Amino acid sequence: MAGARKLELAEALELGPDWRHACHALLYAPDPGMLFGRIPLRYAVLMQMRFDGRLGFPGGFVDKRDSSLEDALNRELREELGEAVAAFRVERADYRSSHTGSGQRIVAHFYAKCLTLEQLLAVEKGATGAKDHGLEVMGLVRVPLYTLRDGVGGLPTFLENSFIGAAREQLLETLQDLGLLESGSVSGLKIPARH
User: Fold this and answer.
1) pTM of the model
2) Any domain includes 154
3) What's the CATH number where 124 sits?
4) pLDDT tens sequence across 7-56
5) Residues contacting 170, CB < 8 A, separation 6+
6) Fewer CB within 10 Å, N- or C-terminus of the chain?
7) Which residues touch 146 (CB under 8 Å, ≥6 apart)?
């Protein structure tokens, strides 16, 4: 990930008290739906439109009241997505990676949580009632995991959006690692270069 250094979780947790920790999660669910009756959706993957107009994942900073990274993440999910997140809990087993940015004393921890489609739909439905809706979070978006016949529409066009920090790279890495794309990798996609 450009400008970021990957850390092992143990190394990240040993950083001194002058480091801040943030946790974010990719939430996804198997989705048997079809777009236009012919394009399989396969999975629903959630991202959010942030207050600054960039796409990112729900989550935020760990603070003193949180007893663990996962407690902080689950608190942030409730604040940003609403009470439907009480139906599941992001755990250490959902952990994917930790990264530091250049010039900042912040370490970002990333998680991916598989939900049932019913849980994901409940999150989408209830998100507008969340404490931070309209403030930190402008709304939820689903990531299109398909590429249209033109080779551009769908995921390649979605990737032209503006993403916060390493969110674009985290998305692509997670989609590939979890096999959420039909091809099992992103290497075959005509992915536009970042602007």
Assistant:
1) 0.90
2) yes
3) 3.90.79.10
4) 888 888 888 888 999 999 999 999 999 999 999 999 999 999 999 999 99
5) 1, 24, 26, 57, 96, 97, 110
6) C
7) 35, 39, 40, 41, 42, 154, 155, 182
On whether residue 19 sits in a domain, the answer given is yes
Q: Is residue 75 part of a domain?
A: yes
By residue range, what is the domain housing residue 77?
Answer: 4-178
Name the nearest CA neighbour of 107 among 23, 173, 1, 50.
23
d(CA 145, CA 161): 15
Determine the residue type at 70.
Answer: E
Span between the terminal Cα atoms of the chain, in Å: 15
**Dihedral class, residue 146 (left if φ above 0, else alpha if ψ from -120 to 50, else beta):** beta
